[in-house]
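ok so heres the complex, two chains, lmk if somethin looks off
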Amino acid sequence: MLKWLVLLLPGTLAGVIDLAVDWMTDLKEGVCLSAFWYSHEQCCWTSNETTFEDRDKCPLWQKWSELLVNQSEGASAYILNYLMYILWALLFAFLAVSLVRVFAPYACGSGIPEIKTILSGFIIRGYLGKWTLLIKTVTLVLVVSSGLSLGKEGPLVHVACCCGNFFSSLFSKYSKNEGKRREVLSAAAAAGVSVAFGAPIGGVLFSLEEVSYYFPLKTLWRSFFAALVAAFTLRSINPFGNSRLVLFYVEYHTPWYMAELFPFILLGVFGGLWGTLFIRCNIAWCRRRKTTRLGKYPVLEVIVVTAITAIIAYPNPYTRQSTSELISELFNDCGALESSQLCDYINDPNMTRPVDDIPDRPAGVGVYTAMWQLALALIFKIVVTIFTFGMKIPSGLFIPSMAVGAIAGRMVGIGVEQLAYHHHDWIIFRNWCRPGADCVTPGLYAMVGAAACLGGVTRMTVSLVVIMFELTGGLEYIVPLMAAAVTSKWVADAFGKEGIYEAHIHLNGYPFLDVKDEFTHRTLATDVMRPRRGEPPLSVLTQDSMTVEDVETLIKETDYNGFPVVVSRDSERLIGFAQRRELILAIKNARQRQEGIVSNSIMYFTEEPPELPANSPHPLKLRRILNLSPFTVTDHTPMETVVDIFRKLGLRQCLVTRSGRLLGIITKKDVLRHMAQMANQDPESIMFN
Amino acid sequence: MLKWLVLLLPGTLAGVIDLAVDWMTDLKEGVCLSAFWYSHEQCCWTSNETTFEDRDKCPLWQKWSELLVNQSEGASAYILNYLMYILWALLFAFLAVSLVRVFAPYACGSGIPEIKTILSGFIIRGYLGKWTLLIKTVTLVLVVSSGLSLGKEGPLVHVACCCGNFFSSLFSKYSKNEGKRREVLSAAAAAGVSVAFGAPIGGVLFSLEEVSYYFPLKTLWRSFFAALVAAFTLRSINPFGNSRLVLFYVEYHTPWYMAELFPFILLGVFGGLWGTLFIRCNIAWCRRRKTTRLGKYPVLEVIVVTAITAIIAYPNPYTRQSTSELISELFNDCGALESSQLCDYINDPNMTRPVDDIPDRPAGVGVYTAMWQLALALIFKIVVTIFTFGMKIPSGLFIPSMAVGAIAGRMVGIGVEQLAYHHHDWIIFRNWCRPGADCVTPGLYAMVGAAACLGGVTRMTVSLVVIMFELTGGLEYIVPLMAAAVTSKWVADAFGKEGIYEAHIHLNGYPFLDVKDEFTHRTLATDVMRPRRGEPPLSVLTQDSMTVEDVETLIKETDYNGFPVVVSRDSERLIGFAQRRELILAIKNARQRQEGIVSNSIMYFTEEPPELPANSPHPLKLRRILNLSPFTVTDHTPMETVVDIFRKLGLRQCLVTRSGRLLGIITKKDVLRHMAQMANQDPESIMFN
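and the predicted structre for the whole thing:
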């Protein structure tokens, strides 16, 4: 029963990370006098001056300039604060990259490409270990606080999967069965997204659509349960300050109109273009890092990028604040009490102050200033994210992508709003926007833009719409979101089919057989299997005629994972498959413990020992390690079927026979190379580590 | 492009069905004078007297007694209306059952068990035909209007799948590829649930969890798209009268409290018990119908059940109204303007009339009357639904199950509310229910009860919670719903693992291999394959030594679907598999068109004709029909793997070999029998039609 408490781990970790990030992000600006471990908000919350307007300026919270030189205004105070901001950012980033380098090299990146690969059947030892869990959690806090353009969502999925791996190591039922372990990991991935966004259903669908390779139905309920437990653990820790479950809670008061679909689709096009641009540039930069001397200085790279980010980000209020705060502000509808610069509209003095449903108003000076700052922030985010994602630190992509989309969307939204306000009589506005009505919600545009950009980068579809739907909690906006998501996917797919995760899988050369690719070519297993015509014959074992020395030589000369066992070299009739690892172990054990086993001993895989001439050495029985049911196809099997079998059964290799005679072998790598060849790609571009 | 308009079909049909049902249900009570095709609501909507209170009593709407004998009150008028109600119900039911019997016998039942079986790879010819589509749509309207205790949700899934089948018949890409056709059907099933409830995400998850057998990821997006298109087509037809998407739109004003989890879990237990009771009794009754003379009088059975239903239902207002109206009323929170009997609370005269957030009040006379009527309605619904589901008419189970749960839930809710009102000082209430506060929402209890009962019958989990979540549109109530759904599933599973659909699949003997059952026994393929020890050897063909006559005899004497082809009877080395159907066709064609083919002709499956003695008849080449890549496993393969392969690859049979020598065959039916045997069931209880 106690073991089940591990289920609470992802939610708790996410809560702790949120609290720590809040505190450390604010530490870059100042410190709380009453208790240094309070964030700005907590510090002022406990202060006595709780009038709504002054809450931001409570005396207990001191900026660094106030604390150090007792100045709160003026150029020197500004410069001091600026410097402190940069220093803290550099310190956090340096700590993070050092920790990752020294203790857990697998803690870097978002982890989603690797988890996809692991769930498809590949093993990366230590990738989901406890050490990775610990270091990734700590460094995630550091890098997010350092103000780099990255998010915590992808790494949270990795952290949750580490928890899941830890969980399955506690139960022998899961740790001994690779398939069951993968089911637990799928559920953990759902829990990760669930805590990242507070979207349990979206988390399950994300795990289903994006991460998991094979998703058995019984996993569905488990994933949902894990996602809910995680979401509610997080909620009871309550890092978002409101008792809501979700990260960005928004409530809009007006419906959308058919004519608005046009800007929404434009935002979709923007999202698709951004996705393409980002993937191309990021992959090119990462390839350069892999292949040139740049890759040898990861610490320096992180320091330089952090310094540039901090220097450029500080002067602009929209880049200085944390990215999730920025998104939250951009999503928000302007209420009557809103004091944000973005809500600096000119109010009609004749109007009584309503609570909801404020009609469209002309923009004030603040809004125009905000537009300029947002435009600069947009360019900055686009450029810096390309260089940030892929550095040797934990880095997620959801939040920066959403920020780019939200900025673009809010700008478009304000534009449409002002156009509609000043040109009520235009034919496109006349039908739905009377003077004095609240027709356009710029926050909705920000949300649609965020969905479009996230979709362009990750190519998520259903889970994306559902996550956004859970954020707003209204079915009303599902059509705008879908329109943007579909457009974005179409536009991005037109330039290249791969999402960022698949692109990174390719870049790293993981053997990943994508379930989404369709294979429709008419090739046969015989075209793909090895040995090809002219190649030396397959390395096989015979069932009762090879000596221990023969086998040891074979093992030494080849690096195959295993060897088919046939009746004899002449008949080539397949009887089973022996793993390299088990062969080595069995021979080693036999040589040490079994008497009479020498290099000349005959090894046999049959039930009965073969008839040997007198005074030949004692034979070695190895039937125990023989897999008597290796997976076979005939040479006439269409490759379409073979690919299907590899995918659905998660095979690593498959033997090819004709009427029981062994002809060759097809490995997963052969299948991948063949698929690349058929898609007119260079098969050698698929590297394997 | 025009073909894609088929996508609009499910939504449109659902809209038409809704409108027709509204009209015909009201026709049992009276008729609209201005236009006879108006339902009660439409009739009064267009009338001039549109004050809110009198809208139900507009002069244009005439009850049958008013129209026929010009009396609206009194015993004779009541009896006349009663009789008309019964007559119309009998007429509708008779028409429905006759149409089904004469034109489309497959149109009966809910159709979900059959669709599950079809998606698992079994073929029922005509089950998804256009004729079934038409008749099922028409008769669905008739039976729902007749007032029988059944719903339209299951049949709508069948109707949507017929549309999907029609759609795939338009594109050769889908009609020629069985796998792609199944993907379209999965998407159609999602669209069906989507229109039934207005829950697009729930529809997709229902299709995933309950209906589909193998759900490839690319189907996900298609299903979601189909579900959305269907939902919005339905919305633009707008049958529910409000511009909401969902069937039962509710908005609650108060949160739930931890202490309320106890009654929610009690409702879960009730749901589980109801599920068990219903499945047991319904299956027993259906078995009796199948095996006794009862099954020979389907029309009479429907007439009798309809008559009994109408006679008992009319006097009770909660059973007289349509079941979906009843559920809607039970789900609703009592607002200030509510005139329903269920909302007859005693108002505090000192209180101003608020719009929302009405505090708990003592129950009035109306509420107590309603409680009695609801109790009677509960018993009636429980009994009559058992006899209704499975008759030879279209019948869904969602709505009656939800009604049972909603009635029970509302009663529990009112009980808790009154307890809390009168006993504020009890320790369990003291923490969360101060006097004058709105603590208990009886409508929420109805919703939780409905979820629990639906879960007990169908054993849905995630999709159930999501459908309910989409109905309320708030994440707040996800925990009560989950608690009830999980409890209900646990309780019901304790009495028997099968949901109602699986039970009906078993009853009808469809070869369905459930993906949810785990197979963990240590048997091997050799234990399951046929021929068993002592049985005659397998019927095989040899590659070049059998005559046409030999094969014709073999075909005549056996009824196997196909025959393995081996090199010779001595070596028994497998070279392929020949389908019975194609063999018959090939021989027939050859005898008619090819010269020199006589009964003595040798049939050969090799590339080259065998060497024959001179003046032997012309041989017949059949390599073309030989499947050169039959699926094989070795005799040592664990049955766990075999079951997995059958499931994931949707096989119908699999050959068993050892080193290429054919040993036997395993069919899907063998696998099913073996699984039943291992689960200590009588394997003969699995009948196959």
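quick notes: Chain B has three domains: 2-237, 260-326+364-497, 525-685. thats all i got rn
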